[in-house]
Fold:
Amino acid sequence: MTGFIGAESETLPLMITSDVVHARRRVRERAMAVGLDLVSQTKIVTAASELARNTVIYGGGGQLHIDVVTDDTSVRPRVGLRITFVDEGPGIADLDRAMTGGWSSGTGLGLGLPGSQRLVHEFDIASTPGQGTRITAVLWRRDP
Amino acid sequence: MSRVHIVQVGSVLVATLGDELDDESALGLQTDIGERVVRSRGAGVLLDISALDIVDSFICRVLGDTAKVVRVLGAEVAIVGMRPAVAITLVELGLPLDGVTTALTLDAGMAALTRIAAARKRGDASPRTGTLR
Structure:
C-alpha cells in the first residue's frame, strides 16, 4: 500500500467488508484535503461506500485508487477527487440494466450503481464479462 | 470495531450507532434491537444516527428493515439526529426512508413516539409521517 495524506495518488485494497470502512475514511480524508465542501464530501464518500461494497461482494475483491485530478480545458481550471474501483471479477453482463436498476430490483446491485452516478459529476463504467469491472467517479470542487 | 450501544430511558430504548458502522454491525442491529424490545417490553425505539457521517443504500435498508422489525413486534420507532449533508445525499440517492418516522433530536423523537402511540390507540389509520409501504 502506498499513499499518505496529501499524496496525489494512492491505492487501497478492497478484499473484505472491513476494507469498505477503511476506504470510506480515506476518501473522506482526501476529499477534505482537496477542499470539497461538506455536502460534496458526503456525496463522494457515500458513492465510494456503494462502489467499494460492490467491488468486495460482486467483484470478488479488488482495489480502490484515489487521485487528485485537474481539468485545464475549461476557462477556469478545476480541481477534483477521482475514485477508481478495479476488480477482476465476473463482470457485469448487462450494464444498461445494472445502471437503471431500481431500489426494489432485489438484484443486489440495486441502487448502488445508478445511485453513485447521481452523486458525482463524472461516472464511467467499463466491464467485460469474465474479466472484471472498472468504475471511475470524479467530483469537482465547487470554487467560489 | 464500532458497536451499536443500546440504553433504556424510561420505556424507550435509545440505540446509538457508531461512526464507523461496518456491514456486520449494521446487520446485527436488527437482532440486537429486536431482542431488547422483547426483553424490555419497551414501548418505543429511537435510532440515533447523529454519529453517522454517511448513510448509503445498504445502511439505509438496514435502518428501514430495523424499523419494520420494531413495528412488527408492536413497538414504535423513530430515527433521530440525521446530519443535513446525509439527508441531502439520501434524497439525491433516491432513498427518502419512506414510511419511517424521523426527528431532529432525541427530545423530538421521544415526542414523536408518544404521538404515534396515541394515534395508534385511537385507531388512526395512518399515524406516521411519510408514506407506509
In short: Chain B touches chain A through 21 residues (CB under 8 Å).
